[in-house]
Every structure is written in C-alpha cells, then in structure tokens.
Amino acid sequence: MSFRYLSPGPQRVFKDRFTTKVDEKKQWFEQGRTGEIGLLGLPYSKSSISVSQASEAPQSIRRALGFYTTYSLEKDHDFTDVTMLDFGDAGVHPTDLERTTKQLQESVKEMLDAEACSRYILLGGDHGVSFPSISAFHERMGRVGVLQWDAHHDVRNTKDGGRTNGTPFRSLLESGALKGEDLVQIGIRDYSNAKEYGDYCARQGVTVYTMADVEAGDITSIVKKEIQRLKQQVDVIYLSVDMDVVDQAFAPGCPAIGPGGLTSRELLLSVQAASCDPIVKAMDIVEVDPSKDFRDMTSRLAAHVMMRYMFQ
Amino acid sequence: MSFRYLSPGPQRVFKDRFTTKVDEKKQWFEQGRTGEIGLLGLPYSKSSISVSQASEAPQSIRRALGFYTTYSLEKDHDFTDVTMLDFGDAGVHPTDLERTTKQLQESVKEMLDAEACSRYILLGGDHGVSFPSISAFHERMGRVGVLQWDAHHDVRNTKDGGRTNGTPFRSLLESGALKGEDLVQIGIRDYSNAKEYGDYCARQGVTVYTMADVEAGDITSIVKKEIQRLKQQVDVIYLSVDMDVVDQAFAPGCPAIGPGGLTSRELLLSVQAASCDPIVKAMDIVEVDPSKDFRDMTSRLAAHVMMRYMFQ
Amino acid sequence: MSFRYLSPGPQRVFKDRFTTKVDEKKQWFEQGRTGEIGLLGLPYSKSSISVSQASEAPQSIRRALGFYTTYSLEKDHDFTDVTMLDFGDAGVHPTDLERTTKQLQESVKEMLDAEACSRYILLGGDHGVSFPSISAFHERMGRVGVLQWDAHHDVRNTKDGGRTNGTPFRSLLESGALKGEDLVQIGIRDYSNAKEYGDYCARQGVTVYTMADVEAGDITSIVKKEIQRLKQQVDVIYLSVDMDVVDQAFAPGCPAIGPGGLTSRELLLSVQAASCDPIVKAMDIVEVDPSKDFRDMTSRLAAHVMMRYMFQ
Amino acid sequence: MSFRYLSPGPQRVFKDRFTTKVDEKKQWFEQGRTGEIGLLGLPYSKSSISVSQASEAPQSIRRALGFYTTYSLEKDHDFTDVTMLDFGDAGVHPTDLERTTKQLQESVKEMLDAEACSRYILLGGDHGVSFPSISAFHERMGRVGVLQWDAHHDVRNTKDGGRTNGTPFRSLLESGALKGEDLVQIGIRDYSNAKEYGDYCARQGVTVYTMADVEAGDITSIVKKEIQRLKQQVDVIYLSVDMDVVDQAFAPGCPAIGPGGLTSRELLLSVQAASCDPIVKAMDIVEVDPSKDFRDMTSRLAAHVMMRYMFQ
Amino acid sequence: MSFRYLSPGPQRVFKDRFTTKVDEKKQWFEQGRTGEIGLLGLPYSKSSISVSQASEAPQSIRRALGFYTTYSLEKDHDFTDVTMLDFGDAGVHPTDLERTTKQLQESVKEMLDAEACSRYILLGGDHGVSFPSISAFHERMGRVGVLQWDAHHDVRNTKDGGRTNGTPFRSLLESGALKGEDLVQIGIRDYSNAKEYGDYCARQGVTVYTMADVEAGDITSIVKKEIQRLKQQVDVIYLSVDMDVVDQAFAPGCPAIGPGGLTSRELLLSVQAASCDPIVKAMDIVEVDPSKDFRDMTSRLAAHVMMRYMFQ
Amino acid sequence: MSFRYLSPGPQRVFKDRFTTKVDEKKQWFEQGRTGEIGLLGLPYSKSSISVSQASEAPQSIRRALGFYTTYSLEKDHDFTDVTMLDFGDAGVHPTDLERTTKQLQESVKEMLDAEACSRYILLGGDHGVSFPSISAFHERMGRVGVLQWDAHHDVRNTKDGGRTNGTPFRSLLESGALKGEDLVQIGIRDYSNAKEYGDYCARQGVTVYTMADVEAGDITSIVKKEIQRLKQQVDVIYLSVDMDVVDQAFAPGCPAIGPGGLTSRELLLSVQAASCDPIVKAMDIVEVDPSKDFRDMTSRLAAHVMMRYMFQ
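YS: structure for the whole thing
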C-alpha cells in the first residue's frame, strides 16, 4: 500500500519548481559526504555577562536560510553548486561552563579533522565561542588572521568574571593562538569600551578601525586592504562577525544593541569583499539573541551574511 | 573515523535519563509500523472568515508535546506504552480551496486505511477541517456521534461565503455524514451565534449545552451522560474541540477569543471524562492560531488536551 | 451610471444574512430618533494619577461590539428589538482639565434632556468620569443609588492631586450628589486601599463587600439583595463598573491590574443579575486602557458586560 | 432643541485651525463628484503563498493619512487644492479566489469609467492585486508602462500554486496586458529570486535594476531616465510599489522582510522623482501587513509615499 | 541656600497623605536596625535547564510592592507596624556556578546571624536557590519543615546536568538538610514529572497533593492540616512557592508555564492560611522571569503573596 | 559584626575593574558639590496633544547611561574627569497643568542659581518643557540662541488647546524669551506641519533647514555655520533635540514617529559638531516615550546624544 495524499514527515512548505532555497543545499554530515561549506552550531551563551539567549541563534539562523534562494542576479550565477554539510550543534552542559568551552573546541577540531569541506561557518552563541573556535583553527591550520566586525574590543580581563563573552580575544592573544598583528577590528564604537582595553589592543599591535574611520572612508576598501596585508603573514583568515557592529535599527536582536553602527548594506558589502579571497576559510556569526529580536530580523541579516560569504 | 563530541542532526535538548517526553513516543508513520494513536495535521485555515494562521497549529502543538512527560501521578501510571504514529501534515493548495478540502478528506481516509492505529488525533487548522475529517470517519467507520466543545454552533449557511470555518456542522448534517441526534454541543455562548442557527440546531435535533448549563451543573457529568446516550446509537464517537470554548484568559490564541468561557481545568477534566470510553476513536483540536498567542499558551493547552485523551 | 462592483464607504466586512451584529443596532443620535439604550463616550483620562490611555476605550469597546450578536440562546431571544442611539464622544480639552469635567457633566445632561432613550451606557475614560456622570443623573433624575464594582474605594482626598481617577466617589459624597447609604461597593481588595478611606466609607454609611465576601457567598445574591434594598430609597440605580474589579488574568488591559479579583463569569453574571430590575437606568464602564491590553481582551469583556446590561 | 456640548458622530480628534490633515481632503465618491486623485482599496491577500493580513492595509494606510498634513515647505506649497475621491474597498469573497480576482479588475474599471479623477492610487492587498489592476488600466487606457519597486521579480510560474502574490507580472506579460519592454524593475535583491525568473525577465526584455545598481548610482536618476524612455512608447505609466523593496529596518511590516534594501529616504525621493511626469497616472502600494508591523511604521511609510505621488 | 522646588534623588511618585505603600515600610538593613521581616534577593538562574531571566525577579517583585498598600479591610488592620529590612541581593558570579551556590548559602546565614528580624522572605531566582537557602535555615534553626507549592517534584538526579533548578529538593534530601517526612508538595501536575521522581518522593516519605487533590478538596484545609502535622516534628516551617504551581493564565511569566494549575485566589488563600502559624519563619518565591511576563502580572502576584505571608 | 557576603543596597551589577560606566560619574546634587554637567529631569507630558508617556523618559534615559562607558577611542580620551550632578526630577501636579509649567521653570532656575555646574542637560518630557526651560535660561543668562533638531516647527497657536507640546517655540517667541533670528530649526519635514506655521517662522526670522537641505548638504557643516553665526549675537546657545527629527527606524519610541528623517549617525555627528563650542551651555532631549519604544532603542540613542554633548 502506498499513499497518494499523505507524506509523513516534517512540515510541508510551498515548493516552486524553479526555486532552490538555500536550506535545500544543506545536508547533515555523514561519513563520506563532502561539501563546500561546513556548518557547526555553537549554542553557548550562559557565560554572557547579561542573560542571553544567543544559544538559540544556530536554530533561528538555520531557519532563516529558508527565506533565501541560491541565485545572485548581480553575479549572474545560481549557486546550486555550493553545498553545505551541517555538523549539527556542539553539545553543552547546563552548569559546567569550563567543560562546555572545552567541548566546543574539540567539536570544531573534529569537524576540521573530517576534512569534508573547504570552508566553514560557525554559528554562535555569544562571542565567547570565538575563543574555542579560533583556538581550534589555530591548532589545525597554523597562523590565523582575524577580521573582527564588532562594536567592542572583547579583550576584558578574566579576573572579574572568568571567561565571558567580553573576553574571547584576550584569551586568544594570551594563549598565543592569535597574534595582535594578525587581528583587525572594524566598527569599534565610542563610549562602548574601556580605555584600558583600547590601550591593550594598541600595545598588542591590533589594528583598529572605529566608526569614524568607516564614516570617513569606505568600509569595502578597508576590508580589502587588510585582507591583502594579512595574507602576507598568516596561513588562514577567519572572519568573526559580532552582529552588534550593526546599528540597532538594523539588528534589533543583539544583546548589546546601540545606535551609531553599520547599516545592513555596509555589513553585507564588507563581508562580501572580505570573502572573495581564498585564504578566508572560516567565519563565525555571534551575539544574535532570537528572544529579543523583532520578526527574526537579526537572524535574517545573519543568514544573508552567510550567503555573502558562501557564494563567491 | 567516528565523532566523540559531534552528533550531526536536529537541535540537541537537555535529556534527563528518567524522563520520557511525550514527543519521544512519536514516530513518523512508515509501512508496517503500528501504534496506539494516529496523528495527522490538517494545516488549513485560508477559508476562515477572518484571516487566520491556524494552519500553523499542527506544528506548534507538536512542539508543545515536548513540554510534557508521559507520567500521571494521579493515575499512578507512566504511559510510555502509548505510542503515536505521526502521518505528517496533509497537503494543501495555495489558491484552490475546494481541492484542498477534498485532499484533506482523502488524507484522513488514507490514514484510516493504513489500519495502523486504534485511535486518532487530527490537528487543525480552523474548524472547517472537521467537515472533511468527520466525513472520512463516516465513510470508513459508519455512524458517527460527535461531542463538540465550542462557543459557536458552526452551522452557518454556505451561500454567503462558501464553506468556511463557520459551516462544518451544517455541511456534515446536510451531506448526511452526521445526524442531528448524534451531535452534542457543549459550551455554546450567548451573543456569539445567530438565532437562525440556534433554531436550526433545534430543528435538527442537536443537543446543546450552554455556558449557563455548565455553570448550573458539572461539565464532567454532562459529558459522561452524553457519551452513554450516544453509544446506544452510533458506531464511533468523535470529539471535536474548538479551543474557543475556553475563556480568552486561558486560550488567548484563538482567532475568536471572548470572555465567559470554560476554564482550562473544566476543559481538561471534561475531555478526560469523555475519552475513557473505548467507543471514542477520534478527536480533533481546532482554531489555535499561534501567531496571535502569548507564549504558546493555547498550543500548550491543546497539547495537554491530547494527553487527557491519549492516556487512559 | 451606477456601480455593480463598487460601493464607496467604510470598510466592508463579511455579512451572514442571518446574523445581526450588536453594532448593527447602533445608530448615531439625530433629532427625533429614539432607542432603548443611549450611549455616550467620556474619553477622559488625563487626570489619572498614572499615565492612562483609557480615553481610547470608547472607540475600542464600540469596535468590540462588532464581535457579538444580538442572540441569547439561554434566554431564547434575539434582541434585535433593542436599539442603541449613540451620542458620540463628549468633547475634551488638551490642557484645561477642570473645563473638561464640566463639559462631561453638561454632555450627559444634554443626552438625558433629549429624552430619546430609557436606559443609558457611559463609556469611560478613567473612573474620574463617574463624578460628572453621576452628578448629571442626580440633577436630572433625583436620588441615585450606585452599585460600584471596584477593587478600590475611589474616595481619596482631593488635596493631594485635585480631582483624579481616585476621587470620584469622594467628590460625589461631598457634593451631595450621592448619599453614603446609597452606595454599594463590591469586590474591594485587600492591600489596594488606605485605611483612612475604608474608615471614610464606614463613616459615610457606604456598604462594602470585599473579595472575601465574594468568596464566602454568591456575588449574584449579594447584588440582588442590594438592588432590593436600594430601590426602597432611591429614584434610580446607576451601575459603575471599574473593570479592575476583575482579576488581571481576565482583564489585562486595566491600568491598575492585580491578582485575586473576580473572574469574567462572576462579573458577567452579577451585572446581569443587577440589570434585570427596571430601576436600573444607567451603567458606566471605566478603566479600560486599550494600549495596555492583549488582543483587546478587556474591551471584549467590557462589550460583553454591555450585552448583559442591555439585553433583559 | 440643539446640542451645545454633544456632537454625535465618529471619534473627535484635536483640531488646530491652521492645519489641514491629508485625510480631511478625502471624500467618499458620489455621483457627480470629481477630484484629483481616485483612491481604491484592493483588500485581497488570501492568495499569498504565506499567510498574509495585507488585506488590512487599505484601512491602516488610510488611517495613517491622518498623521500628515498637506503642506510642503520644500515645495513651498500647501496642497489643499488636491482632493481625493475614495471609492472604498473592492468586494472580496471568503473562499472563491478566482471570482475575487475578477471582481477586483471590474472594480478598477468601474472607477476609471466614472471619469471623476485624473490620477489613481490603488492600495493592496498583496502584490497579486497588480494583475487585475494593471489589466484594467490596460483595457481602459491602452499601452501601459510599469515602474516596479520590488525586491522580487514576481514572475513565478502559475502551475505550482495558481495565481499567487508571486505571479502578477507573469500573468500580465502572458495575457498581453503588459509588454516586457514596458516593465522596469528597481531594487531587485540577490538571493531572493530564482534564476529561471531572472532569465525569464531577460527573455521578455524587462529592464532590471538590482540593489548593486542602486548602490553604484543614484536611484533618482535611474527613475527619471526610465520615465523618459517609457514615455516614448506607452500611453500611460503605472507605478507599482512593493514595500518589501525597502530594508526591513524601515518597513518592518512587510510579509517578506529582509536586509539590504532601500532606505525610506531613497524610496520617497525616487517615487517623487517618478511622479512629476504627467504621464504617470496610477500607483499601487502593496505587501503591507499591519498585523506584523511595529507601530504602523510601514503604513506610515506607505502614506508618505502617497503624498510624494499626489503632491506635485 | 535651600531649594523650594527641587529635591534631588530618585524618581518622584504621587503621594497620597493617607496611603502607605508597602515599599515605604522597607529599609535597607544597617547594623542596629531591626524589623519584622528580613528580605533577601537570590538573583540566580544561570543553572536553569532552559535559559531563564528569573535572576531579574528580586528587582521586579520589589518594584511591584509599590503597587500595594499596607491596609487589609478584611482583617480591619493597617499593617504599618510591620517593617521590612532589605538585605539586598546576594552576589553571584558570571561563570562559576558552584561558587555562586556557596555564596547564596553564606548570604542567607549572614542574614540570620544578624538576628534583626523574626521572619524572612527570600526572592529567587530559579528554584535552585531553595537548596542553599533551606540549607542555611537548617544550619541555623534546626529541623526544617517545608511546604512546597509546585507543579513539579524538583527531585531530578544531579548526574545529567549538575545542580539545576530541577534538583533542589533532591539535594536537600540527600544532604540531610531536609527529611522526606518534613516535605509537603502541593499542586503537583500530571504529565509534568517523571515516574522515577514520583516514586522517589514516595520512597522518601514526602507528602504529595496533586491538582486532583486540590479539585476534590479545599486547598486551605489541606494546608492547615499539614501545618498542624509538621509542627509536631520540626523546629521551623519554610514555605517554598514555585509560581508555576499557578495556571499559566494567572502567572504567564514563569519559565515553565502550563494549563490546569491553581488560580490566583487559591494561591493567595492557601499561603495566607499557612502563614498564620508562628512556626512559619520563612518563605521563598521562585521561578518568576520578568522578561517573559505580561505587564509584570507574575511579579504582581508574587508581591501579593508576600503580603499574605507578612500581614497576619 | 560585618558582612562578608551581604551588601544591602540597590541592585548589584557586574563590575569590570577597568570600565567606568557613565552613570558612575553621576551623583545626586548636594549643597557644596560641583560638577561639569548639571542634569535635571522634566517629567511632564500630560499636555501632549496625544496621550504620551514621555514623562517616563528621564528615568529610562538615566538607566540607559549604564549601557555606556566614558571612553572615546576616536578622541583618545577617557572622560572620567567629566562629572554629572543630578538634580533629580522636577515636581509635577496630576491635574493642574499651568502650575506644573511654573514649577518646571522655577526648578531650572534653582538649578542655575546653585552655580554648581558649567553646562546643563534637561531631560523631557514632551517638547512643551522647552518653554519653561529656555525661559529660565533666558532669565538667568541673557540672550539665548537655540538650535532645534525637529521634524516640526512647534509654533502652533495656543488658542486651540492651550500650551501643548506643539507650542513651545510660539510661547518663547511671543514672551520675548527668544528672538526669531536666534532660532535655527534643523530637519523640518514635509507634510508634517501647517503652512501658517512655516510662514510664521519666516515672518519671525527663524532659520529653517528641511530634510532636503540635509540631503543636499552636510548636516555637520550646517550646524557649525549656524553656531558661528549665532555666537555673534547671543550670550548662550541652547540645543533642543526633539528625537522625532530621527527616522522612525532609528527612534521608534517617539510619539510622532515617521519616515524620511535623520539617521542615528547624522544626529550623533551633528550634536557633536554643535557641542564643541563653549558658548553651548545647555541641551534638552524631548519626546521619548519609553512605553512605545522597542528595547529602549530611543532612550539608548538619547543617552548617546548626551555623551556627544558632554564629552568634548
């Protein structure tokens, strides 16, 4: 007996025969499968200083992929040839946060060890996940350069609260997984950081672009210039996109929203400009809290950032 | 190579080794599988008189099953022995509504023809789905008795707008799939219906209990009495639960909310009282619009109604 | 030329030929028209102690009438014979609040002077409107008895803030428009009033029923008993329904919400019990703030209260 | 007897003697009346692929007119001389969607046949309404040129779901009501369309401007250039404004919101630039769903677009 | 120089000279001060299984005290003689959760050691705080009896996630701080617990009342009976009020909301009944998440519970 | 006895030893204290034409200061040397609005008379507060120049509604506290004002920049030019920032939101440009209604505006 009308399984959605949704090009990883992009969720935000539900973002951003198609008219190409392998979400522990950090790092390494993909996307989680994630890339791929879109330096001291979402780049610089000269911060905002941490970045040789730099120049040129510089000295470049670099009007679902940031178009264009160089092998997107958002706007923007990275 | 930390697949949730969530007892139907309860979504609400997103309820109610466990302390039993076979959601068409109605009826019949379950749950959708659903049960199981929890008679004329969510019982009575003497309406509310339709029910021999009847008596006794009466005359009893029978305070996500209805406890107790007789073979739950709800309260209540029906 | 498809005018809604919506029985007052119920909006809440948008309630409650029909199955009667004459909303001034109070009182008197209706409904606004409204009834109809559903005494002193929504019954008792022995308060809640005002009511001979009295007895009996008592001594009875007498779960849109109040069913039944005596000539409904509500629940309840009063 | 204080009728609002609100210049059409602008609501969104309440937009946009005045300081003119005749909302059917499409087309033709106005505004509804609306203009006015502000091509095949909000321009091109060379699409967004439909537009000779074109140039110049081109070949130009061309930050109430679109200023300036040529006789505004909006922002923007079109 | 109009300091609120708000009777503890009630916030919810912002509840419940007065008409007493000493909020650590638990316990002990009050209120936080809090009472006051209002047993195993908000009574029973025979659970709900934990409670000699017990009897009598039993065997009684014992309609802001629970009136009356015995020395209120609430309803209910406990 | 763990007092927040939050530099004024910036709340919005809760903004903007630090990377300076003296909120009366206006003016004068600060910030309230505030500056400091960021002229006649939030600059010009040639309006929007009031401004010699002027030029240059002009003729310059000058996407919490306004970056840059001249001694920020906002976005923007003014 076979069904004519029934089709047991997940929710049915309207299907246009000519349209390929981005999530149709995503498969769960299985041994032997390969794909262009490896995707891993790092659903971890309990160590945020304020209460954060950014741990829900891997799910909401994946859902938002269903709003998009694979076709770029501007590039005149249908990226149905780019497939994603989804490694699922790394496991976390309800109360042992140090153990969770270790599990995240091991999870990223296991994904890299599978050697199934050529580029990677990591979905946070709060910005704390960039510490284990970049550490794993460093362990497996050598010297890592990082372009960090962010309103904040994220180099707080770890004495006052342990490893939080304010400390990932401090931890990376201090552990040696990242050199100051290999870190570029874009979109840093006034009155959102402490002087000690601005000075710390300067002492470490971090390159910092403020919003005034963005206003004065052209963010796309900044990004291209820094990619060219970094590729002289590193083995791989990792983009770390803290969505709070964007003005609160365009990304209302970040925990630490504020005015005076990037527009959505500035973010999309600059990520696209960075991603076209093959040395860029990884990107994380962090600090999206779906519970604070309006109509998943911030997850939709995050998913659009993914396309700008994936489809070159 | 196998993973120690990774486990590609859907979202991970916290697992307590001793707890069985209700949705863990649900499987997608496959040929050869059997189970106590057959579940089918009827995600259809475009024919609602007002714009309704009740078509999203099958998904939200299924998700709400994850909030509940299989264990009843009051009955001192863990219903891990009751399994659900999920036949998925019936297919609908974006613009051809008559075709959709036929597909819904065929879908229910296909589920019954599979003979894989002994009892069934249908998740609307708006109340319009009860017409194809009960018609299908009539075709396959003979004379059907219906207990309808509802603030409204739902016997509007079909001339003014075709088959809408206000007409299912009119359509059933006129098509012969249901006799007036086999229909019991509970919770009918003043100032929410037209006199012509109250009179129509009387002419058809429908048994009607108003909210004043509920206030005066005991809804559990009413339900038990009517089950006893119906089982003398019908082959099978079908419960049709329009969630707007409940006061708006307890079911804020129904399209047609209003005050003066049942409490959540009255609904749960009366459905439980009805469901303990084995002649009750089916239940539908309709008129939950997740887009209008607060914190999925109405889907949570609907899921709790499912447990009261399933776990006897 | 005449149109076959077009029909310029306000929004079209679905019309079932057998259904009479309550708002279809409402007409704007014009000279010469008469009707059972006179309706007047008193959109005044700037003198509320907290910021209140209760001034929007006359519009939202009128709209909510469109959710209801004229038919009571419990009374087996279709009240299409009860018509409402709508006198619109009284004018208010943006910054001169004393002038507004006078205008409200004159507006009510003008409506009464029209002698077009036999009973009246006044829609606040905050509870401050009951002072000019009851004063007007006193001027035109003689000795007034008042049944007040309320969590609060509303007899604050006027020295600390002038005439606010906390002072109407103080103003009425002091102006002589109302005698203490003619005032009955139902549903007064603990920890929501000052001792001085409880004592003031006692000194004035006001009859007070607390929530404990409601729990202990039967609110319908209380109401009937007090109507019988009052009608021995007054010329007319006026019901004043402050919606915050209702538990916050059932009336989430009142400015001063709180737990431990009446259920929606207790309110509807008690208003219905009070309204069946012909000496009851007026009712106001106050303290509904649509901007704070969820899905107009509180306006829906208020409109349902209107039906329980109108349809005897 | 006449009233001094009462004035039965719709809600009173504060009136400044020197201010003319835009909605004060709007009258319901009656035989014999003429006006500059004819206004018609097309409250139709049941054929949207996703559930849409865009059918409520004609009401919410009309209400938003009350937020605006007739005065432009930039043009140094008070447009109290421009009057609107409102033909109300076209009738729709709850369940017969094909019949509704025909009724919409007939309604637009009836409005044009009245010959009471020189320019027209149509308020959707979803984008599906542009098919009957532009068809009617084609029937009555000859060759029509269309400027379409949109993130999407809206030329889906009609086999997969019938005529939906994704198909209007396909239907127009195939029915011959519109030639490809007469259609200009502005603001088309990457990853929001299928390749087949981009190719279809190319084959049909449609002129397409992407967001990259907008970034690179000046949207006002694009619009002016295309108006000049079209006026060589068509009898009348029709502007079709799908509000989802705007970035989600500025139009949060569109069903298909997304990042990377126009700013509100780009939309207002480009519509103003297009509207100054007298060959532009009509504009529709579609895809505003008030139930999804925040503080009616999207309806406010739509109403502002109306002013930029009306007041030349 | 002194000010006539200015008064630098926190927000001014309207003051009625005869009204005492409950929060006016609250002072920060200082050495030497004494008061009837000691108040301490335990703002800790990072160990909740789901993300919880219950850590904000101590602030929102304190603010809600400002909605209430000290006067009970039912008891005919103005409780201005009952003062609260507020010990502030215990300190927590962003990432070291075990350390936080210890700090909470030490904080409660320090408050008790101050010997400044005769009764205590602890404001969670999630239910996890009851473990350190009751442990502290046990250390300082001897054998503790506990009345727990709760939908859940909260005796999960600690192996699957460490000490979470699902484990406090397991931890207490295993550490010896509480004996099973001294624990009474009221309002336990079907399909919300695991069989293993129901059995565990039975094995430990815990007394359990389900919602069916509440329906069948009278919750006030249940509470009084159990207080009488416990006082034979313990030194002090501690009330632990998990607000999710209440139906979701009345407490919409609990993390784990659901239908079929207590009404607000049942909760208030039963806490009042329990609190009148002088052996009751402490109460905690937990699982209120202000970020999920509607209009602070759940915090308002929590504050009302405080009054029922404080004012005897 | 001293506490090791307890610290009675207001809510504890996470403290990073190197970070100075802006609100840490704020103290309540006391006799003898001096500081750079004097801060005063003017919590007054009852005279708004529409119901407004802008009276809550002084509290919400103060709270938003806690989101910001004192450090500017762009200026390479940590403004820990700039202290704020907070004079609290001026007292208002619930029903006597004229009296309130006088109290506001006296309050500002008392603050100035204290001679404790060199520059001032006034937090409204609605725009009506600028009348008493600027009047006070005029009385104490002589000829005042005003830069007004606003979508509206705010020079309505006072006959139609008394002194409302639409009249402050009319009142100032007519009372002689401000000369037309000393008033500059920036960001005035089309279709948001009446011709009479545009003409009135022209007759009074007010300098007006529309949004078209902003689009055409550079708002920073406009501001600098006008500061230079004004300082030739006035004793002191006062900035009056009506937040509705900003596009609704960036300031969703203003009562009179609309599209086509400034971006957040345009506002921040232009206020910063204005504030660097020492003749600028005061700024007010008005028309933020926290009850209408999304995630306090508009209060966050207002607080950021404060920093741009304070930190030079």
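YS: worth flagging: Chains E and D do not touch (no CB pair under 8 Å).
IM: good catch. Also The radius of gyration of chain E is 19 Å.
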